[in-house]
């Protein structure tokens, strides 16, 4: 006979559990005729800290040590912020070469938060009371008498406050409560410089040369072959500059040469030079750099989320999550035969932002 044919009450494990429950006075499970009966709580088991004061002292010292480490880590965070230069690079195995300031701030802040959490958890699990108690569930709604009394008290309080009659006090109070949160907004001003209209402008301006990103040399029309993709930056922007990453993220260009008869958009043709068009390299979805170009279709593809733009038709979006076309830079040739910009982009580059207009 298999174990599946034996009634559950006759199984050794079930019999042993029942005998143990009766021997220790445990509350039995709900009766089969009343499955929602209260099964009660098992007997409370004391922890070692509840019966041994030395163990409780050890737990207390452990919690205090964790909180002390948190305090020291916070002091270390402040000291790291003040003393470590922002441009210091250190080698940390296995992370490699990383910013020493970022590493120190992350480690000290993480340790401070972890020690607070670990100390609180250890305190709750070893020293705070863990005895469970039951209480009868009471009605959520108040009794009618209580409701009537609360409503009467509210009306009496409103009458005694004289807010209805003292309109001057009421209006000035509302004004004070409305203006007071503005003090917090003023404090936020100290977080850094205002963005102003920096997102709307790049380093491109009238007369700025288009410089090849690879050779660091100004571009001539003859340097751009039909079907090729060239990346350019504004004249004067060097990788050693402190603001290089910030500025190149707005000013990076894609240079493509098309046959003029293949350009469908009228403005694109007017802003080009002999079929050479210049578009922002920054995808209008989330700002990824575009780097994939199909010569036959004149499409460029963002590798992050596959937004696709048609460079022969105003760089409009033909596929993907991007919300609008790539901004075009109007270009021409100066007296020395180099490609130059005729101004800045006429719209913000990169992904949309809330004040875009």
Automatic annotation (TrEMBL):
* GO CC, any one term: plasma membrane
Domain spans labelled Rieske:
245-340
Alphabetized, the UniProt keywords read: 2Fe-2S, Cell membrane, Disulfide bond, Electron transport, Iron, Iron-sulfur, Membrane, Metal-binding, Oxidoreductase, Respiratory chain, Transmembrane, Transmembrane helix, Transport
Q: Tell me the domain of life.
A: Bacteria
The membrane topology of this protein is: Multi-pass membrane protein
UniProt lists compositionally biased (Basic and acidic residues) regions at 15-36
Q: Which InterPro entries match?
A: QcrA_N, Rieske_2Fe-2S, Rieske_2Fe-2S_sf, Rieske_Fe-S_prot
GO molecular-function terms, A-Z: 2 iron, 2 sulfur cluster binding; metal ion binding; monooxygenase activity; oxidoreductase activity, acting on paired donors, with incorporation or reduction of molecular oxygen
Does the record's keyword annotation contain Metal-binding? yes
* CDD domains in alphabetical order: Rieske
Q: Where does this polypeptide localize?
A: Cell membrane
Q: Where is this region: Disordered?
A: 1-45
Name the major location: membrane
Can you tell me where the transmembrane regions are?
Answer: 63-84, 104-124, 168-188
Family membership, please give it: Belongs to the Rieske iron-sulfur protein family.
Tell me how this protein assembles: The cytochrome bc1 complex is composed of a cytochrome b (QcrB), the Rieske iron-sulfur protein (QcrA) and a diheme cytochrome c (QcrC) subunit.
Query: What does the UniProt function comment say about this protein?
Result: Iron-sulfur subunit of the cytochrome bc1 complex, an essential component of the respiratory electron transport chain required for ATP synthesis. The bc1 complex catalyzes the oxidation of menaquinol and the reduction of cytochrome c in the respiratory chain. The bc1 complex operates through a Q-cycle mechanism that couples electron transfer to generation of the proton gradient that drives ATP synthesis.
Question: Which PANTHER family does the record associate with it?
Answer: CYTOCHROME B-C1 COMPLEX SUBUNIT RIESKE, MITOCHONDRIAL
Q: Mind telling me what this protein is named? A: Cytochrome bc1 complex Rieske iron-sulfur subunit
> What organism does the UniProt record list as the source?
Streptomyces dioscori
């Amino acid at each position: 006979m298999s174990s599946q044919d034996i009634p559950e009450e006759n199984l050794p494990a079930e019999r042993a559990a029942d005998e143990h429950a009766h021997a220790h006075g445990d509350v039995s499970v709900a009766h089969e005729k009343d499955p929602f009966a209260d099964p009660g709580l098992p007997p409370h088991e004391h922890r070692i800290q509840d019966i041994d004061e030395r163990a409780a002292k050890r737990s207390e010292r452990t919690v205090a040590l964790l909180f002390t480490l948190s305090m020291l880590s916070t002091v270390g965070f402040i000291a790291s912020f003040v003393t470590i230069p922002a441009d210091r690079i250190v080698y940390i195995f296995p992370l490699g070469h990383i910013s020493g300031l970022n590493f120190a701030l992350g480690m000290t802040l993480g340790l401070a938060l972890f020690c607070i959490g670990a100390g609180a958890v250890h305190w709750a699990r070893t020293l705070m009371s863990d005895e469970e108690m039951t209480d009868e569930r009471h009605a959520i709604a108040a009794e009618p008498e209580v409701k009537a009394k609360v409503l009467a008290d509210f009306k009496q309080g409103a009458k005694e406050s004289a807010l209805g009659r003292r309109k001057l006090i009421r209006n000035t109070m509302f004004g004070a409560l409305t203006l007071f949160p503005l003090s917090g907004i003023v404090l936020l001003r100290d977080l850094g410089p205002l963005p102003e209209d920096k997102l709307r402008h790049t380093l491109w301006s009238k007369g700025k040369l288009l410089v090849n990103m690879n050779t660091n040399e100004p571009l001539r029309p003859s340097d751009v072959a039909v079907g090729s993709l060239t990346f350019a930056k504004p004249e004067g922007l060097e990788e050693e500059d402190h603001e290089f990453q910030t500025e190149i993220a707005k000013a990076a260009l894609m240079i493509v040469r098309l046959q003029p008869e293949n350009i469908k958009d009228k403005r694109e043709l007017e802003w080009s030079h002999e079929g050479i068009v210049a578009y922002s390299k920054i995808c209008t979805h989330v700002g990824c750099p575009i780097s994939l170009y199909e010569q036959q279709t004149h499409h460029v593809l963002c590798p992050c989320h596959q937004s696709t733009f048609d460079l022969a038709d105003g760089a409009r979006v033909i596929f993907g999550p991007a919300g609008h076309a790539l901004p075009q830079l109007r270009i021409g040739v100066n007296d020395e035969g180099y490609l130059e910009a005729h101004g800045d982009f006429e719209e913000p580059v990169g992904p949309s932002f809330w004040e875009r207009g």
